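Reply to dn_fold:

You asked what the input looked like. This is it:
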Amino acid sequence: MCRVMVVDDEPLVREAISHIISSEFDSVYLVGSTGSGEQAVDLALEERPDIIIMDIRLDDQDGLKAIEEIKEFMPGCVMVVISAYDSFSYARQALRLGVADYMLKPLNKQDIIDIIDNACLRVETEGSHTFFRWQDKEEAEDLRAIPSEYSGEIPLDKERELLQYINLKNYRQARKKLKEICNMISTEFSREEIKDYCREILIVIIRQIFSSTSIETLEFTSKFKREEMIAALRNADTAERAQEILQEHFRQLLNYLERRDKEAADADDIMHKARKFIEENYDSQLNLAEVAGEVGLSSSYFSRSFKKKFGISFTDYLNQLRLERARRLLRSSSKNISEIAIEVGFNDSNYFSKVFKKEEGLAPTEYRKAKS
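and this is what came back:
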């Protein structure tokens, strides 16, 4: 069970999230809700939730202050900020504190479901550690060293568009959007602020890549040394050089994602080729090794990939095709059970009858009588 706490000074928001949790999730439990930042700290200390969904602006105090206090005694809690304030300064402060997501109001039902799904996935896969647990990484020092406020402020929608393009795999537009952002900060930020911003946006980009793809941490870190990438930005001699490094890192990341997407598409084509081969040859003595060999894969890798792609094992899919053909023959022909078994690819009529009964609840002879 994922234990969730909601903090929002709008009663209707609290009620909506509570209703969605109770109606849409079987393994999520609402431990409590409040509209007060001070009460949120006390409630978190008492209930120890896995996930906290919190508005960034509350009546009695800044939600960021409550987040900071809670993080002191619950550093592993997955925290999601929801806000009506479209401000990058709020977002970056929240990210520095280690929140898992920053979502803008108004939120619809699907937004809330997605927030909770993603947060629960982090709890299940990462235990008490979120992606933004920077206490033991150089990124922590990078973010803490950034001034509390920039003299200029980029609207959050610019960064959000960039991250959305990454999520949608529209890498061409993502490249254009980052160039647009870099042009903007060149005119609105001081040189030191530009260097700080470049480090921060790179960290946010890496986070988006992890959250929007199926990349494993080990796979990513074997290709990219995140600490070295950020150190290069920190050590840039000039603001211009920091932007060049940022865009070069971004180019490398997107090239990697494009190659990975192409490999996935090629693998997808292979699985469809394999399924077509099965559909054309299911009535022969077909087996896993033969199909795997046909598409040039090992049996074990093919077996895993087929089930991942189609949600069904090779054996179950093969049997489904054979049994569907057997049903038609039982309804429309006078062939005996042994003949039908052989015709649909089973070389043992007893095994065929066993599989058929398990699927239909009737033996082949009973099925024929019932359908005649």
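Residues 127-141, 143-152 have pLDDT under 50 and may be disordered.
Hope that clears it up.
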